[in-house]
Write a structure and sequence with these properties.
This protein is an alpha/beta fold. It is 40% helix and 14% strand. The chain has two domains: 41 residues; 155 residues, Ribonuclease H-like superfamily/Ribonuclease H (Nucleotidyltransferase, domain 5, 2-Layer Sandwich), CATH 3.30.420. InterPro entries: HTH-like_dom, Integrase_cat-core, RNaseH-like_sf, RNaseH_sf, Transpos_IS3, Transposase_IS3/IS150/IS904.
């Protein structure tokens, strides 16, 4: 699973067939059926256009993509969320985070041993307790289309945006965050248990937000840019 996850960061357009082929080139024998099962368990899916992707499934309301010509120029203009996979010695965890587009600041994060939606609403509640964006963007995963999730945003007066057909890179800032977190933290560790993951990630996210300079932010930290941006926002 760690090999699959690492390669997915480099080639997110690989489906189970290509991923099984790539594993074979690395000396790991895994058939396509097993790779498909593992990718599904990890919440990984090849990025490519799909027919009728943006149509509602009849159970939850679908929202339009609002960021086609929108540029985030201030803190709290746009927030995003997504889920990724964190390996341990035995098993894995799901990690969700909310990030501010303008500052790249991680506003909240949560771990879960499943892909159920409760931990996604928990991370959203934590972020909303300290601020409110104009637009909140997510993909059409069941965790984010659920009424329990979208109703919180609507109640807070936030516009909901969702990646639809042809918008596979709509959450590019979160994808960049995952790449950074994995190469600077997760892939360097051999987590023994949930407690160790929580402690280590808490330490890393403090470093990421408060100490790590970003070239795209003029070598300032996300926390610095976010705080400065919020101070300039109209009340």
């Amino acid at each position: 699973m760690r090999l699959i996850d690492g390669q997915y960061l480099k080639t997110p357009f690989y489906g189970s067939r290509r991923m099984a082929w790539w594993l074979g080139t690395q000396g790991t024998d895994a058939n396509r059926k097993r790779v498909r099962r593992l990718m599904r368990a990890m919440g990984l899916e090849a990025i490519r256009p799909k027919p009728r992707l943006s149509l509602p499934d009849g159970c939850h309301r679908m929202y339009p993509y609002l960021l086609r010509d929108f540029a985030a120029t201030r803190a709290d203009d746009v927030w995003s969320t997504d889920i990724t996979y964190v390996p341990m010695r035995r098993g894995f965890l799901s990690l969700a985070a909310v990030i501010d587009w303008f500052s790249r600041c991680v506003l909240a994060w949560r771990l879960s041993n499943s892909l159920e939606g409760r931990f996604c609403t928990d991370v959203l509640d934590e972020a909303l307790a300290n601020g409110r964006p104009l637009i909140f963007n997510a993909d059409q995963g069941c965790q984010f289309t659920a009424t329990a999730f979208t109703s919180r945003l609507e109640a807070a007066g936030v516009k909901v945006s969702m990646d639809g057909r042809g918008r596979c890179l709509g959450n590019v800032f979160v994808e960049r965050l995952w790449r950074t977190v994995k190469y600077e933290e997760i892939y360097l560790k051999d987590y023994a248990d949930v407690r160790e993951v929580e402690h280590s990630l808490a330490k890393y996210f403090r470093f990421y937000c408060d100490e790590r300079p970003h070239s795209s932010l003029g070598m300032r930290t996300p926390a610095e840019v976010y705080a400065e941006g919020r101070s300039r926002n109209p009340a």
